[in-house]
């Protein structure tokens, strides 16, 4: 799906899904709509120069709107988790100031980074009238919530990294499966037909394989074989097996999970891959590691940092530190929630609205939620050259 032309409505913000566009009187001509228009949101009066937020409280209430929302963040967790939670809180406050204060009453609960506490807080929110739960960030808690039954359960917009999603529990963060699928699609759209998937063995391997296969099928391409590899041998065995199982693939996708892709890339290089006829596709997880010369020549689909630009300047001015992707995710979910509340009311958070196939556009780009709870994103397609990402295409998508 191509992002198409932007639709700018004569309001300070816009929600883009077909129903909201119809209700607001702003209709997209090309079928793609915006979850919000960060570029159109002006900094509210009195916002500039605000001080950095003080110590997080266990429970905070923001806004005075009629739609009750609960957000679960690890505000007092130690280390990186707590730091990211506090960034998300600042992003939430900015989004509420920009969009949500008159629409939402948003209660922020501190999970302390404890999965058990996060699960309990989520269940309390689900059973006490919240229309939407944003969070948790703890993966075990998100996975537990996804196992709970109940047709009347409000939707959960989970902020956990590497969460695959579940019915009514939506994965917000870009996952390796989606990055791999979009990267493969970027080459398939240019004519590549035969792909090999080398995926780190683990609980996410099946999800990666399924998403990549589905993505390739859209372009008439296919996975010739999927080989799971173990970190214990650096993927050398899988690379050897690939040579005996597949003749002349067009591309090899390497989904390395938590580990560095360097060992398996070294094994591929020993076989002349990448080369003139065989490309390598990486994922967003590669970028969690120092850029290795072995990454050179690989293609990757990942988020566009420039998408956060419209909110990044206001965020820095307000909180005196730069916005990152955690800020963008939190801002988008609060803005999306406020937009739905405005367009269709407190009871408008249905599967039909949230799973609208046209998707939403926010500060993390174009995305949509699937019925299985996974998310799909359209994102830039890059090639790694001289240790940097070089843009190949502005938008590629596995959907």
Automatic annotation (TrEMBL):
Task: Say yes or no: keyword Signal present.
Answer: yes
- Short name of one Pfam family for this protein? Peripla_BP_6
In terms of superkingdom, the source organism counts as Bacteria
Where in the numbering of this chain does the Leucine-binding protein domain appear? 67-387
KW Signal (keyword) present: yes
- PROSITE patterns found in the cross-reference section: PROKAR_LIPOPROTEIN
Q: Which SUPFAM superfamilies match?
A: Periplasmic binding protein-like I (SSF53822)
Q: Which UniProt keywords apply?
A: Signal
Per the record, the similarity remark reads: Belongs to the leucine-binding protein family.
> What name appears for this protein in its UniProt entry?
ABC transporter substrate-binding protein
Which species?
Answer: Mesorhizobium cantuariense
């Amino acid at each position: 799906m191509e992002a198409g032309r932007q639709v700018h409505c004569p309001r300070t913000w816009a929600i883009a899904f077909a129903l909201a566009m119809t209700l607001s009187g702003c209709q997209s001509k090309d079928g793609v709509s915006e979850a919000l228009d960060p570029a159109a949101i002006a900094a509210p009066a009195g916002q500039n120069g605000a001080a950095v937020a003080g110590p997080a409280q266990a429970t905070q209430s923001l806004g005075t709107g009629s739609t009750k929302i609960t957000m679960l963040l690890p505000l007092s967790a130690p280390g990186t988790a707590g730091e990211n939670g506090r960034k998300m809180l600042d992003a939430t406050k900015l989004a509420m100031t920009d969009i949500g204060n008159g629409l939402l009453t948003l209660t922020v609960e501190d999970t302390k980074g404890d999965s058990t506490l996060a699960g309990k807080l989520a269940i309390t929110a689900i059973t006490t009238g919240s229309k939407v739960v944003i969070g948790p960030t703890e993966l075990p808690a998100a996975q537990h919530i996804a196992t709970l039954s109940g047709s009347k359960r409000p939707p959960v917009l989970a902020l956990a990294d590497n969460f695959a999603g579940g019915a009514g529990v939506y994965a917000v963060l870009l996952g390796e499966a989606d990055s791999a699928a979009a990267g493969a699609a970027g080459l398939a759209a240019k004519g590549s037909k035969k792909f090999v998937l080398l995926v780190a063995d683990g609980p996410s391997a099946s999800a990666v394989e399924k998403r990549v296969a589905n993505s390739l099928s859209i372009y008439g391409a296919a996975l010739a074989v999927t080989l799971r590899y173990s970190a214990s041998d650096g993927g050398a065995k899988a690379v050897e097996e690939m040579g005996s199982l597949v003749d002349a693939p067009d591309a090899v996708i390497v989904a390395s999970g938590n580990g560095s892709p360097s060992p398996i890339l070294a094994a591929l290089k020993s076989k002349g891959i990448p080369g003139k006829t065989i490309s390598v596709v990486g994922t967003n997880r590669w970028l969690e590691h120092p850029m290795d010369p072995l990454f050179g020549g690989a293609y990757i689909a990942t988020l566009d940092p420039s998408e956060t630009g419209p909110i990044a300047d206001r965020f820095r001015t307000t909180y005196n530190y730069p916005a990152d992707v955690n800020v963008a995710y939190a801002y988008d979910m609060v803005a999306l929630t406020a937009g739905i509340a405005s367009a269709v009311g407190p009871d408008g958070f249905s599967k039909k609205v949230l799973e609208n196939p046209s998707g939403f556009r926010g500060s993390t780009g174009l995305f949509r939620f699937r019925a299985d709870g996974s998310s799909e994103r359209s994102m830039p397609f890059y090639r790694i050259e001289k240790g940097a990402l070089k843009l190949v295409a502005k938008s590629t998508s596995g959907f």
